[in-house]
Design a protein that fits this description.
This protein has about 180 residues and is an all-alpha fold. The chain has a domain of about 120 residues. It is built from seven helices and no strands. Helix 1 runs antiparallel to helix 7 and helix 2 runs antiparallel to helix 4. It is globular, with a radius of gyration of 18 Å. The two termini are about 20 Å apart.
């Protein structure tokens, strides 16, 4: 790989790093956005279960990843049903669900950012589009109501990382330096 390929690979990794920064910033903003303790606990639960399912390469998890994912999803649904019972404001619960789904989609985006498999790249793009739509749609009234630019920064950071990675990979594919499996 020549100098052009190395520069594009660095740009691709930089995109992953920027998306990681956007995910961390998003989680920090969401912890302040979700002020109820049950919602914060639910966010921590989803993040930790997603991290276990996607990132830990233990043999038990690797062999039974789908089963563990289904069990985790059932556990999260039951936990959120209990939260719904104790929730007074249904609109706030809807915002909580969209925050959880958008954070999960951004985590999936981060997970598949550096993948070279075509199916995983499609998941990468779809997950980012879901994150972007949910974040802009359901946080927009929160952003306008508070007039705080700090809440839109995670969306901007994650978008910059996505396009950094996407542009680098497109350039690498056009020059024949990268092929999807």
């Amino acid at each position: 790989m020549g100098i052009v390929g190395k520069k594009l690979s660095i740009l691709r990794f930089l995109g992953w790093f920027i998306i990681l920064g956007g995910l961390i910033y998003t989680l920090i903003v969401d912890f302040f956005y979700l002020s109820h303790p049950f919602y914060i606990l639910g966010l921590i639960l989803v993040i930790s279960l997603t991290l276990i399912i996607l990132k830990l390469p233990y043999d038990l998890i690797e062999d039974n990843r789908l089963l563990l994912g289904i069990i985790s999803l059932i556990f999260i649904i039951i936990f959120n049903a209990v939260i719904l019972i104790f929730t007074v404001d249904q609109d706030y619960f809807l915002r909580y669900l969209t925050v959880i789904i958008s954070d999960f989609a951004l985590f999936i985006t981060l997970h598949f950012t550096l993948s070279i498999k075509q199916k995983e790249k499609i998941i990468f793009i779809i997950a980012f589009v879901i994150y972007l739509i949910l974040s802009i749609t359901f946080k927009l009234d929160f952003l306008i109501g508070q007039i705080n630019i700090g809440n839109s920064i995670p969306i901007i950071i994650s978008t910059m990382g996505f396009f950094c990675n996407f542009i680098a990979e497109t350039s690498m594919r056009k020059k024949g330096l990268m092929k999807y499996i």
